[in-house]
Structure formats: structure tokens, C-alpha cells
Amino acid sequence: MAGSASVLSDGSLLSRIDKRLEKLEWVMAFVSGIGAFMLMVLAVVSVTGRNFFNEPLPGYVDWIEMAMPLIAIFGIAYVQRSGGHIRMDILIGQLKGRVLWFFEFMTTFFILVLMILLVWGTWSHFDRSFDFSAPNWSRDSSIDIGLPIWPAKLVVPVAFSVLSLRLVLQLIGYGRALVLGLDRPVAVPLVQSAAEIAAAEAEQI
Amino acid sequence: TEWNVSVWGKRRAFTEHIHKLAELVEEKTGGEFTMNISYGGLSKNRENLDGISIGAFEMAQFCAGYHADKNRAITVLELPFLGVANLDEEVAVSHAVYAHPAVAEEMAQWNAKMVMTSPMPQYNLVGTGDPRDELSEFDGMRVRATGGLGKAFSAVGGVPTSVTSSEAYQAMESGVVDTVAFAQHAHLSFGTINQADWWTANLNPGTVNCPVVVNIDSYDGLSDAHRAAFDESVDEAIDHYLANYGSLLERWDSVLEEKGVQKVMISDDELAKFREVAGKPIHDAWLADMAAQGLPAQELYDLVFSTLEKQRMSN
Amino acid sequence: MTQIEIGLWVTGGMFVLVVLGMRVAFAAALAGMVGLIWLRWDQFGYDPDRFGKALEISVKIAGQVPHGKVSSQALSLIPTFILIGYLAYYAGLTRALFEAAKRWIAWVPGGLAVSTVFATAGFAAVSGASVATAAVFARIAIPEMLKIGYDKRFAAGVVAAGGTLASLIPPSAILVIYAIIVEQDVGKLLLAGFIPGIFSAFIYAALIITMALTLKNFGPPVKGFTWKERFVSLPPALPIVAVVVIIIFFVYNPFGGDAWGTPTEGGAIGAFIVFCMALWRGMRLPELKDALVETAKLSIMIFAIIWGVLIYVRFLGFADLPSAFSDWITSLEYSPMLILVCILLAYAVLGMFMDAIGMLLLTLPVVYPAVMALNGGEFVSAADSTFGMSGPMCAVWFGILVVKMAEFCLITPPIGLNCFVVAGVRPELSVQDVFRGVTPFFVADAITIALLVSFPAIVLWLPSLA
Ligand code: NA
Ligand code: NA
């Protein structure tokens, strides 16, 4: 579930970088949240405009589609930082010490490889819609009011790049724990039992 | 050789030429060259051109209006009131424009080569309530129409309202829009005809243009025999499409009757007024805009009308 | 190797990664990416020189998915529904609902438990998430039940079970996700959840009343509220009614006129009402900031699974696996109803170990076409179909069934998250206590599911009007 796992910190360089990156990640997640709020405002404007002034918002759907990547993807690194992406922890919840860090290291490494490939793929998706010499730099436009789409497409590789940075930090964190045999390493989300997750979930409400 | 072909929705009149092409090619090559036609499994419809450029699949269909900036040159074919009267003319005009070097050059940027068009009849309106058969009644009308058509309706005071084609039925039912502009087959497959009280038989404001393209590398990589089989089959595939759509159009009147939809004829005076407001000015704006972007706009525009003329003389 | 074999290997690999604890979203995306590369390289005859090309094409195909699939108007319902839930808390709607339910219905046997069930059903109308509903009511309802002598395990069970109603009664994030994955009308699915949700609530209530009448020393009814007290309790809970009415009217107008708009707009207007209410109740900028960041986190987590799974689905499209699976299912020589029941039971087992959204997203791309094929195809008419309903109606019916299944799994051991949440909120309760207390509700849920399977009309009546 999307509760926040605990991430420990100390005065080490790793931990300080973790804190610094977290600030950026929080801002990005907040922007996603504002996007969700704007979605609501946009609908209110559209419905009142249509029903009371016979003046529907031109390009309502276009604007929603432009905003969605910002809402749905931009803050992804913040969720990863707190271990918020869901997983099945029935096995990993039983593990301790070096075995646990080994599994965490491996799965995080796989995610990093995936994300680097996806930065490449999503950048190329953006790049095909972007043309420096075209009006509005646009080589792909929305269906109704012809908004250039490249800004929305650019959101994705940017978000994934920050996520990749976050994954590198977590790899270092797990790597340290694996080598040094640490019990409570800093800068990585610590595995919580289902009960702990539930407690954190309840805490938010 | 097996080609993947990306289209969307479900099999309908709009995709019949692709099935026919696949069938003919397979037959002519003794089963050596086959096509696997996928409805939405390989790409989202608005990204088919991207898929071609990546090399994800070898052949695809797309519509110019989905993303004008990807295919500026062929948007000339979506201008309102070009005066295209039937599907044969639509094919002639489209293929003439597709053959223009400016179009080929723009498609080459996507690693794509034009194969054929998917000709569609004029996008007439269905609507609810009292028929709107005078221009003044278009004022304040919320109409689902995209691209050049949307511009045409807003020129007479209509309010183009964006809903996707799959939401069109619900938008009409819920009063988000009063009217929807589609070709006949789409009024059928998206169900807007079931919601309608009337249909404009002769408004004929224009249509959308949806070509079928191939990936250039894949096309060039075909053996000579396979490429010949492919090239030879295109005209036959289009003929099949036209015959099939023709029979759908023949059924159209009985569909209207069955659904209790009134056929609305708009007077010549009103049509002339509409053309005057929504035709010329929009054409001029398109010419200026595209010329400013370095396209041979006037040439493409003239090509449309000279081809129309030629097509009419030959009949 | 055939495409199907590659498809099966990759799918197996994905489940191994998921079991090893890799985040579901990324496990699915990685499986899809590897599968795309494998397929393409297979096509190139495993020529080492062309591996780079296979990689490039596959990476670019996968790179289209996150932006392309997320940019959808229908999916914009998800953040909106999540936002409503967070705002509803600040609007004080939960306590108001419980208070009103108590004053109006607690006079029946087992009254406070019945009130809790209906209050959770009411809260479900502004909350899209079961777990949040259970957490909120564990705080409010359990202490009151304990005060008048309810068994603590039973009190906990009522709340854990009541929480599951949130995913059936609209708004429901999980129903929107289902609709998107299977490409069906979101509005129809949301409407379809309404009656089964209320129906579940009544079955729970019937169960509680039966227990109160047959067992000794079972929680006594609460009597003695005056009519004045009852009516006074209504206004604070009214925004819920407003939200329900608005969402329904934006999907379908029960009085036969035009609906007021699209579900997307309805959800957003509902959120706006709750937002105004929360402002009025004293929500200020810091609380709003929290609500927005929490909304973003939950939305992003759900969307990550959506685009991750859709990369895997894009690979399935190239590998043609779903059609192979549905060919296999339809070739089985068992009765279609038996196969359907087996599929539902498989969900019950899988749901014991997996999160509901992850489970549905991972399995539906393959299972859904098979179920549609069982019924006779996506475009089949009711008359020609196996289950006696048209293709789109079958999609709605199956959707409600699997969502009800997934909700059932929220209260079953070993992972039933609702039970953990309730135990987490109440210091006096252990997880075992909650699991024991919720056991009677398994019976209620089993009855509900059996009835929904046997009488599809319970699900389909409302959407068939729209
Ligand atoms: Na709900
Ligand atoms: Na506890």
C-alpha cells in the first residue's frame, strides 16, 4: 500500500544526499497533487460554462490529457523513496540481514535497469514530437485545439530520470547494508510487516 | 514474410480495404507474405505513425486530424467545403495529394510511405430535438466536430465541444453536445444514430482523411515478387472498399427509417451562406498558415481542385 | 521458440519477480520490456549483430506507453476519486454519518453494528478506497460499540467488513481501473456497482440482526433518540447525499431526462462540493497541502501499476497470448458456468496473497478476453450468449464479480489488509481478534457472490437503464 515506510537518516553523506533529493521529490509530488486539484477546478469551470453560459471550455479534453502525465507520473520518485509502490511482501517480510539486503539490492537493480531503458524510450517518444524548427517546436498536436504535446511527453523522461537517481541512492544504501551487514541502514525504506504498514496507513487518516 | 498491421476499434467498413489487401497479397504470393492485422493490440490509434517510425510494425492506418502537426501537408484534405461529391472523387483527390513530393517528404520523416486512403463520405450531422435546417439555428449549437470541420461550425456560431468518438454517444445522451458530425459508418458503430432525431442529408461540410502507410525500410526490404504483389493489390483493395461502403450507403435510408430519424434537406440559399462564411475564410487562413511554415500550400490546394476537375471530366 | 512459449516464459518470470518482492508496477514493466526484446530478437533469428536493433525498437515501443496510456480523460477519474476521499475526512463527514446512522437505525437488534454497516456504506459514496474507510470507522465506531458491551472481536469484524463496501459503491477507483483495462464504459460500471454495494450492506445487516436475535448477550439495541435528535443529525451528513445524487445524475438521469454530463465531470463536481464543505469545516492550507500530496502519492502508485502492466500488455499484443488463452478456455469441455466459478475461486486464492488492484491488473489482460469468449464474444447479443447477456453487459457483470471477489480478499487471512488496519488503529485488538470477528461475514460475502452469480439482474438492472 501507499503508506510511507520509515527511512532512517544520520549525518553521513549518503543520508544528506537522500534528504536533499527528497526535497526535490516532494516538490514534484506536490505539483502532481496540484494537478489533481486543477482537474477538479477545470471540470467545475467547464460544467458551469456549458450549463449556465452556453460557453463550454474549448479543448477541455485536450487540457485534461495534457495534465494527466503530470498528475500520474511526475512525482514517482517520491513514492519510491518512501517504499510506497505496492509489492507482495509475504516472502521478503520473512527475511532478515544480508539475505534481505541481497534481495532488495537485486530487485532495485532490476528496476534501475528498467528505468534507464525507459528514460531512453520515453525521451525518444518526446523527441519525435519535438522539432526545434517548427512553430511551437511542435511535431505532434492535440486533437481539438491543436496544443503542442511535447511538454506533456517531456514530463515522463524527466520524472524517470529523478527516479533513476533515487534508485542509484537506494542501491548504494542496500549495497552498504549488504557489505557491512547492517541492521538498520539509512536512506532506504525499511521493510515493514503488514501490521506496521497498517499502523502507518491508519496514522494518515 | 509476416507483417504486423496496426489499426484500431473493431473490423468495420473503414478497415475493409486492409483486410482485402492482406488477403490478395497472401493469395498472390502463395501464402509466403502474410499480414497480421491487430485492432489496438500494437499501438494507440494516435501513435500509429510513431509506431511506423520506430519500426514497431510494418503497416498502419491513422487520421490526419488526430495530430495535425505530425502531418501538416495532408490537412488540406480536411478543409471544409472542398466540394468532394462521392467516394470515387475522395480517392482521386487523396491519392493525388499523397503523390505530391511535399507529402512524401513529410511522411519520410516518420519513415513512412503512403499506400492508400480510407475514403469517407461527408461528415453530416445527427442531432436531437428540432431539426436545424437554417444557418441561424447553428448559433450556440454544441457540436462534436474536430479539425477543419470544427472550425467551419464555429464560423457560424457553433461551439465545437471536445469528446472522443467513443464518448460521443454518451455526450449526446447527456446533452454535452446537441449534434455530432460523423460519416455514416461511424454514426452506426458509435451508436449516435440511435440517439438522433434527425440527420442532415446534404450539409456536406467536409470529411476527415485517414491514410494507410507502410514503413519504408520494410517496404524496401520486400523481395521484388512480394513488392510487386503488394503494389498490384492496392487498387483492387480500394475497389473492394468502395463496393462495400457503397452497399452500406444503400442501406442507409432504411437505417434512418428503422430508427425513426428524419432526413433534413438544407436549402441551397442556406448552404451557399454557410460556404461563404465557413469555406473561403478558413481556406485562406490555412493557405497563409501553411505557407508561413514553408509548405507549398497553394500548390497542394490547387492540386485538390485540378484533380477534382479531371476526375469529373473523365466520368 | 514460438510466440506463445515466449509469452508463457515471460509471464512466469514476472510472477517470480513479484513473489521475490519486486514492486508490482516495475515487475510487470520489466517483463513486458524483456518480452518485447525477446520476441523481436527471435524474429531476427538471434543474430548477435541485430540485438542492438531489437533492443532499440523494443525500448521505443515501451517508451510510448507511460505517456500514451496515462493521457486519458477517463483515467482522470482516479485522482479525482482519491481526492474526494481525503477531502471528506477534513469535511467531518465520517462522524456525521455515523451519528446519523446511530440515531436513525440503532434501535434494531444488534443496532449499533447495523448502523456502522450503513454508515460505512454512506461513506463509501465519497470514498473510493476500502482500507481508508475501515481505518476511519475503526476510530469512530468501535469505541461506541465497546461502550455498550459488544464483543470486541465482533465490533472489529463489522468495521473490517463494512470497509469493503467502498469499492463497489461509486466512486470506486478499482471499478474505473477495471473499465479502462477492459475498455468498457466507465459510467455503466460505476452505476452497476451501486445496487450490489447496497445489497451487500443489507446482507451484512441481515446477518447481524440474525445473530443478535439468536445469540445471548449480543450487543443490545440503542433506543431513546427523539425525532428532533434524529433530524438534527441529518444536515451535517447531507453533502454525502449531494455527492451521490450528483455522481448518479452525471451518469444517468433516473427521471428520464438528460444526464447532466460525463462521469468525469460528476466526480470532479462531487470533489468540489466536499472541498467547499472541508473549507467551511476549517481545513486550511497545511491540511490541503497534505491532502494533495497524499492524493498524488496514491494516484501515482496506482498509475505506475497501470502503465507498468500496459507495457506487459503491449508485449502480449505482439505475442498474441490472450487469444491463445481464450482459445484454450473455450476448448475446455466443462460447462462455462463451472469455468467461471473456477476463475472466481482462483481470484479468491490469489487475493489472499496480493493487493486487489495489482491482482486485477496483472490477470485481467489474459483472463478477461477468455471470459468474454466463454460468453460468446465481445459483440455477442444476449440471445446468442452463454450467460444470457450481451457482450458489454457480461463485461459489467464480470467486473462487479471480480471486484467483489477482490474485496472479499481484504478480510480473509493471511493478508486481509482491512483486518490489519483495524487492528493497527485499536490498541486493544490483535490481528487474530479481527480475523476471528470477521469470520461470520465470510458467510455473508459468499451468499452475496452466489446471488450475484445466479441473478445477474441485481448487477445489470441499473446499467441497462442508462
Ligand atoms: Na466508493
Ligand atoms: Na492492535
Q: What count of helical segments of chain A does DSSP give?
A: 6
Overall body shape of chain A:
elongated
* Span of the ends, CA to CA of chain B: 39 Å
Query: Quick one: overall form of chain B?
Result: globular
Report the portion of residues of chain A in β strands: under 5%
Supply the helix-strand structural class of chain B: alpha/beta
Class computed from helices, strands and strand pairing of chain A: mainly alpha
Largest interface: A-C, 79 and 80 residues
The whole-number mean of residue pLDDT values of chain B reads: 89
The whole-number mean of residue pLDDT values of chain A reads 86
Number of strands of chain B: 11
The profile of the biggest β sheet of chain B is: 6 strands, mixed
As for the number of domains of chain A, it is 1
Distance between the termini of chain A: 14 Å
Q: How many β-strand runs of chain A? A: 0
Word description of this protein:
- The complex is a heterotrimer of chains A (205), B (315) and C (466).
- Chain A is mainly alpha-helical.
- Chain A contains six helices and no strands.
- Chain B is of the alpha/beta class and 315 residues long.
- Chain B has helices spanning 16-28, 48-54, 87-98, 101-108, 147-155, 168-173, 184-189, 192-195, 216-220, 224-259, 268-278, 280-292, 297-314; strands spanning 2-7, 34-39, 59-61, 112-117, 124-127, 142-144, 159-160, 179-182, 198-200, 211-215, 262-264.
- In chain B, the strands form two sheets. Chain B has a six-stranded mixed beta sheet. A five-stranded mixed beta sheet of chain B has the order 2-1-3-10-4, sandwiched between helices.
- Chain C starts with a helix and ends with a helix.
- The model of chain C has no long low-confidence stretch (mean pLDDT 84).
- Chains A and C meet through helix 1, helix 2, helix 3, helix 4 and helix 5 of A and helix 1, helix 2, helix 3, helix 4 and helix 7 of C.
- The structure holds sodium ion (2 copies).
- One sodium ion is lined by residues 124, 127-128, 166, 169-172 of chain C.
- Chain C: Keywords: Cell inner membrane, Cell membrane, Membrane, Transmembrane, Transmembrane helix, Transport.
